[in-house]
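Researcher: Next sequence.
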Amino acid sequence: MSEHNGNLLSVNDLRTYFQTEDGIVKAVDGISFQLKRGETLGIVGESGSGKSVANLSVMRLIPQPPGKIVSGDILFDGIDVRKLPIDDVRKIRGKRMAMIFQDPMTSLNPFLKISTQLMEVTQLHLGHTKEQAYEHAIEMLRKVEIPAPEKRVDGYPHEFSGGMRQRVMIAMALSCEPELLIADEPTTALDVTIQAQILELIKGLKDEFGTSVILITHDLGVVAGMTDKIIVMYAGKIFEAAPTKELFAQPANPYTKGLLKSVPDPAHEHGAPLYQIPGLPPDVAHLPPGCPFAERCDRAEDICTKEFPPFVQINENHHSLCHFAKEVHAASGGE
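Model: Next structure:
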């Protein structure tokens, strides 16, 4: 292993913009983060905050046009993925870094057997013969706890339930034992019981293979027990970054506090309304001056609508994009 401060992935000042009829949409606008080997990073935020675009950028899967990675470095094990020829990126993608996409029904080809789709990955990246690839496909289905994998391997996607299709996607992503696994809202369309099973499965396979994981979700409850650290995104920016326990115990950003309050609490008084952050996320093609969250923020003052907030360092591993980050952090301590 080469030395990169122990980081498998380093993203520095990444900007991914989309050209639209309404103007330039700054979907990801200057974000930086690091991921160590064997670590799990949670990326949370409302829909449209830039979570998925950031990780599609890492995988070099941004459709061009209308999208474009405008600037920034994406260092994977010291290699700048952004500068690699696309053929070299394809050799890494699927083998050393893999992604579980949001919707397994549209990610699997409905006309091909599950076996064909799983075999293609290992034949391409591991040089398996047909027989080896077929046996490996069965083994991977067994690993993701699909019953009777010898029989199910030759089924078609429509013969599997939503949870089972998601397991197939996980099997496909982990077929080559990648060093980095990006899971983009892997439990969105699943019921709560299946959600828990899928998350437990990813956790177990991560421990088995020593994989680094990026877990993208809009649900803070999902990342609570799964991640080592969390990034909170809003309007294409990182609003807060901290170790998971610290972020839950003492957030330093009003947006993070709003997200945490929005998580249903079993101790919540029966019949009382659930909290929701007022208003809607801003149009990233026409962002207001100042802080993008100011209009929805109960802590906002005049400066928030006029000046873009600084990225304040709370401690070595905790940062918050807010004019009043230290005050918010101090106030969170007693909650």
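Model: The longest strand covers residues 7-20. The mean pLDDT is 89.
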